[in-house]
């Protein structure tokens, strides 16, 4: 037996073999038996008198949802005192108002004093009402609830503990949600300090230990402790340097400074941590989270069970490496050091990385072969993703060439003056390029994204977090190791970090205080999910690559089949591959049209007919399900338009603003198309596949952006820079420029310094 304060805790609970808690958040979705502890601050209203009904209804809804999934839910709740206090205050006010109305008149009602209410009396008055409220709420979800009242003494008697255990197991067997509370109507005398305003404290602080006791006693998989703070902080919440602790490990108490308790309840965070660690030792996983925040309280319990990064997760398994938050901080510090290097030093790192890619070609290809074999054995990747996963000698050579281009073009990217203005005499203003900060590049199936993104981040002086798909784990590890080896030549190894923890992408997108820009590289579904999940972090990218080629009546016969073949067949899995072919109506049933169809058949491209095209045919190919389809394979849609104007309208309606092409010899028609199509890349008589950072001479790209701010099209170094303003003065103050002041604004544009063009 060991003790906290004067309360004994039996370290090996009755009839329970020592269990093992979940090591990672992602495993919480497997939790079968769950205890939800509702603190006083969660259950009570802000005025500390009465219950927060909306919040309570939301909690009941989440518990019901999990119960109906087949889980076994239990609730340890506070609130009886607050509910009873509300009822007794109402009765006292009503009684006093009647007496005063009889003796003194209505004018003195406002002076009535409400006596301090005895806590046990409040609990006695509130317990039945609290339970009735829970029953009414759970009934809406066809779930039965049962109340169990306990005291500390019930845990000291072995027979009572057996009885309690048996009762709870029987209720769970019958699919009933037990609602457990301390029997505050019969607790020992209260302590001298106060709990709820105007009510002497009861053993509310024991609800934390009660929940932990029950969780371990019942061999519970998960204990969720809801309070009025986001979780456990390394110092009191609200202090300047306070940081939320994502995962707390036994032995970390020394690194935490505990503050005062919440507005209600006597538990306090220190008591919660002690209870959590005791439950963890007993084999129960624990999460402490905020149950009062209006934006998250409606899904906080279900989010925790789904493994999302909410609150503080208690784990006995300490990871071998740093947390993702620590990695982001390391990347920011490393990025700042990187930005402070001379341009030649940053270029030297990239040249070194290019050399390493060719020098370690066999090692890289061997790791990639492992990834491909595992992916094929599991059968989880579609053919287009398998193609993106594959590396080859030619791919590595192209990568190395692209990296050398980046190194050569990065000499004056950071710190370049793009505007100079003389504000007034001896007051000069400059706008200069600077790194964005910390980039998060999320990519799936494309290990070549790692050296490309790393080189662009290095050239632009940004810190970088890389999150690759598990399917490319072996390739990514080798490529990241080589990247860090190159960075080490100037002591900035930490500037590029590979996230290997079990972080969900959605959780990474919430790190708005650590990440400045997210760049997704992958399927349209991945990009959409990231855009939806990102909270406060801008996302650069495109959700789909629905690229069009319009064949005009004045198109060259020699050019049409070459451009269409290259756009569709050269690499159909790419985001810049042709997906919809628009044909001028006058070309139907012409030799040119027949050549196009024959070429597509030879290349084994499956054709889907658009609605208008299908109407012209007696026996048509399968009609397209949607004109907004990105096939990513040897498939495409053919649709008929009446001319360039309709082609532009079709692209605007069904396209994704990525890359669109016109094939024509009519310059006037081509210029109309180029000027009116509102896409990131618009080409005349050229393949859609030219929409690429390497082919544009950017060296490489971190992605193609279809957004309308900051960067658009293939994003190279320039797209990873922002600016800051430098003002150099000599004792200047704004008051000198007032009507009575001695100085006048000049606002004279100054010549820019000569750029390095070597």
Automatic annotation (TrEMBL):
A biological process from GO: L-proline biosynthetic process
Localisation: Mitochondrion matrix
Enzyme Commission designation: 1.2.1.41, 2.7.2.11
Biochemical pathway: Amino-acid biosynthesis; L-proline biosynthesis; L-glutamate 5-semialdehyde from L-glutamate: step 2/2; Amino-acid biosynthesis; L-proline biosynthesis; L-glutamate 5-semialdehyde from L-glutamate: step 1/2
All copies of domain Aspartate/glutamate/uridylate kinase, residue ranges: 32-290
Keywords, in A-Z order: Amino-acid biosynthesis, ATP-binding, Kinase, Mitochondrion, Multifunctional enzyme, NADP, Nucleotide-binding, Oxidoreductase, Proline biosynthesis, Transferase
Gene3D superfamilies: Acetylglutamate kinase-like, Aldehyde Dehydrogenase, Chain A, domain 1, Aldehyde Dehydrogenase, Chain A, domain 2
Catalysed conversion reaction: L-glutamate + ATP = L-glutamyl 5-phosphate + ADP; L-glutamate 5-semialdehyde + phosphate + NADP(+) = L-glutamyl 5-phosphate + NADPH + H(+)
Domain Aldehyde dehydrogenase: 323-588
GO molecular function: ATP binding; glutamate 5-kinase activity; glutamate-5-semialdehyde dehydrogenase activity
Kinase listed as a keyword: yes
Location (main, coarse): mitochondrion
Keyword Kinase attached: yes
GO cellular component labels: mitochondrial matrix
Complex formation: Can form homodimers/multimers.
NCBIfam families documented for this protein: P5CS (TIGR01092), PRK00197.1 (NF001221), proA (TIGR00407), proB (TIGR01027)
Family in the record: In the N-terminal section; belongs to the glutamate 5-kinase family.
UniProt xrefs under PANTHER family: DELTA-1-PYRROLINE-5-CARBOXYLATE SYNTHASE, GLUTAMATE SEMIALDEHYDE DEHYDROGENASE
Function (record text): Bifunctional enzyme that converts glutamate to glutamate 5-semialdehyde, an intermediate in the biosynthesis of proline, ornithine and arginine.
Protein name (record): Delta-1-pyrroline-5-carboxylate synthase
Source organism: Mesitornis unicolor (brown roatelo)
């Amino acid at each position: 037996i060991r003790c906290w304060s004067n309360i004994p805790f039996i370290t090996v609970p009755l009839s329970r073999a020592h269990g093992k808690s979940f090591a990672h958040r992602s495993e919480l979705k497997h939790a079968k038996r769950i205890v939800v502890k509702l603190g006083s601050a969660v259950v009570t209203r802000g005025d500390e008198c009465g219950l927060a009904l909306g919040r309570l209804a939301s909690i009941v809804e989440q518990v019901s949802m999990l119960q109906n999934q087949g889980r076994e839910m239990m609730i340890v709740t506070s609130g009886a005192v607050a509910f009873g206090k509300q009822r007794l205050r109402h009765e006292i006010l009503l009684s006093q108002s009647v007496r005063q109305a009889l003796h003194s008149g209505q004018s003195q009602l406002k002076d009535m004093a409400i006596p301090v209410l005895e806590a046990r009396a409040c609990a006695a008055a509130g317990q039945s009402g609290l339970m009735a409220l829970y029953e009414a709420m759970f009934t809406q979800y066809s779930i039965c609830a049962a109340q169990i009242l306990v005291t500390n003494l019930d845990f000291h008697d072995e027979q009572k503990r057996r009885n309690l255990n048996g009762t709870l197991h029987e209720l769970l067997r019958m699919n009933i949600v037990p609602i457990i509370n301390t029997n505050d109507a019969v607790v020992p005398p209260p302590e001298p300090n106060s709990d709820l305003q105007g009510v002497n404290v009861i053993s509310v602080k024991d609800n934390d230990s009660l929940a932990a006791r029950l969780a371990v006693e019942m061999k519970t998989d998960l204990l969720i402790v809801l309070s009025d703070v986001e979780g456990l902080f390394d110092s009191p919440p609200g202090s300047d340097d306070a940081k939320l602790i994502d995962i707390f490990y036994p032995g970390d108490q020394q690194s935490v400074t505990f503050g005062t308790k919440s507005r209600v309840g006597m538990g306090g965070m220190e008591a919660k941590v002690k209870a959590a660690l005791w439950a963890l030792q007993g084999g129960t996983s624990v999460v402490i989270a905020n149950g009062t925040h209006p934006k998250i309280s409606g899904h906080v319990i279900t989010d925790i069970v789904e493994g999302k990064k909410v609150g503080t997760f208690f784990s006995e398994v300490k990871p071998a490496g740093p947390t993702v938050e620590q990695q982001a901080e390391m990347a920011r510090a490393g990025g700042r050091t990187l930005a402070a290097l001379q341009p030649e030093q940053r270029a030297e790192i990239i040249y070194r990385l290019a050399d390493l890619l060719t020098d370690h070609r066999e090692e890289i290809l061997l790791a990639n072969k492992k990834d491909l074999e595992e992916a094929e054995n599991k059968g989880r990747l579609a053919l287009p993703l398998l193609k993106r996963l594959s590396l080859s000698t030619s791919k590595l050579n192209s990568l190395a060439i692209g990296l050398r281009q980046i190194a050569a073009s990065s000499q004056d990217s950071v710190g370049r003056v793009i505007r100079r203005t003389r504000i007034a005499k001896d007051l000069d203003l400059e706008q200069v390029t600077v790194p964005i900060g910390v980039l998060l590049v999320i990519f799936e199936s494309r290990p070549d994204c790692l050296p490309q993104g790393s080189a662009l981040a290095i050239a632009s002086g940004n810190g970088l977090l890389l999150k690759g798909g598990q399917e490319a784990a072996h390739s990514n590890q080798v490529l990241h190791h080589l990247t860090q080896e190159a960075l080490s030549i100037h002591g900035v190894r930490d500037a590029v970090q590979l996230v290997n923890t079990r972080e969900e992408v959605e959780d990474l997108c919430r790190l708005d205080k650590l990440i400045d820009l997210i760049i997704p590289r992958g399927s349209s579904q991945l990009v959409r999910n990231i855009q939806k999940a990102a909270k406060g972090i801008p996302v650069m990218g495109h959700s789909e690559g629905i690229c069009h080629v319009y064949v005009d009546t004045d198109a060259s016969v020699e050019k049409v089949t070459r451009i269409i073949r290259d756009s569709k067949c050269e690499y159909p899995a790419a985001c810049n591959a042709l997906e919809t072919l628009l044909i001028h109506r006058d070309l139907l049933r012409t030799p040119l049209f027949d050549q196009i169809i024959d070429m597509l058949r030879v290349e084994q491209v499956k054709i889907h007919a658009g609605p208008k095209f299908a109407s012209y045919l007696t026996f048509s190919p399968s009609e397209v399900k949607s004109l907004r389809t990105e096939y990513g394979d040897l498939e495409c849609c053919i649709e008929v338009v009446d001319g360039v104007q309709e082609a532009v309208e079709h692209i605007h309606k069904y396209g994704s603003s990525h890359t669109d092409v016109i094939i024509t010899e009519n310059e006037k028609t081509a210029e109309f198309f180029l000027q009116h199509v509102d896409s990131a890349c618009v080409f005349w008589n050229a393949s859609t596949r030219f929409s690429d950072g390497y082919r544009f001479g950017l060296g490489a790209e971190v992605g193609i952006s279809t957004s309308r701010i900051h960067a658009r099209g293939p994003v190279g170094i320039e797209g990873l820079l922002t600016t800051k303003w430098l003002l150099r003065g000599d004792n200047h103050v704004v008051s000198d420029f007032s009507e009575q002041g001695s100085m006048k604004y000049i606002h004279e544009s100054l010549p820019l310094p000569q750029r390095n063009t070597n």
